[in-house]
Amino acid sequence: MTTAHAKAAARAGAQTRGVHHLALCTDDIKTTTEFYVRILGMPLVHAMKVPAGLGTGAGNRGNPPYEEVRHYFFDMGNDSTLAFFEIPRGREPQGNRNSIGSMQHCAFVVTPERFAALEARLRSHNIPYVGPIPQLPGLDGIYFLDPNGVRLEFACQPANGAAPSVIDCVAQTREEAGAELRTLPGVDAAWLEEMTAALGD
Hints:
This protein is an alpha/beta fold. The chain folds into three domains: 17-91, 2,3-Dihydroxybiphenyl 1,2-Dioxygenase, domain 1 (Roll); 103-170, 2,3-Dihydroxybiphenyl 1,2-Dioxygenase, domain 1; 172-201, no CATH class. 26% of the residues lie in helices and 25% in strands. The strands form two sheets. Strands 1-4-3-2 form a four-stranded mixed β-sheet, with helices on one face.
């Protein structure tokens, strides 16, 4: 069994297959659509209004409490989508990305070629950004904000070229992860073994 196959086998316990959609909020769907299509190059793949009765009625299953909210999906690559709900302007406060339960930022994996092209695109549209800066060994990032104040990142693994492998880039050994995990309160050997079961030696 190759190292890659061994690592895949060790991680076979994951119950999900990645992101279907990440749903965020905006109060300006038109500007948001233009930003994601024109600047980030994420094609719009679905545009709808949530049917009446699902915002405030008995059929609400977690939708924002407003009727007929626009809900647009953008292709963010690798068969996953980014979605935006349009909240009526002035009805909700601006989010704080550092609040508990909030999304601090969303990082999109890109190849070195796309990394350079997207940085140039940000620059040509006068969009402020930070980076490129090293994030982890073998990982560089560029940070910027979308029109809603959502913090985004382009994450690039230069050594991987056109075939980035995210898990292989970030996965630690059992001992490396354990060194941090042992700083948590109430940790014992059985808990450490359970939490690091997918990691190699």
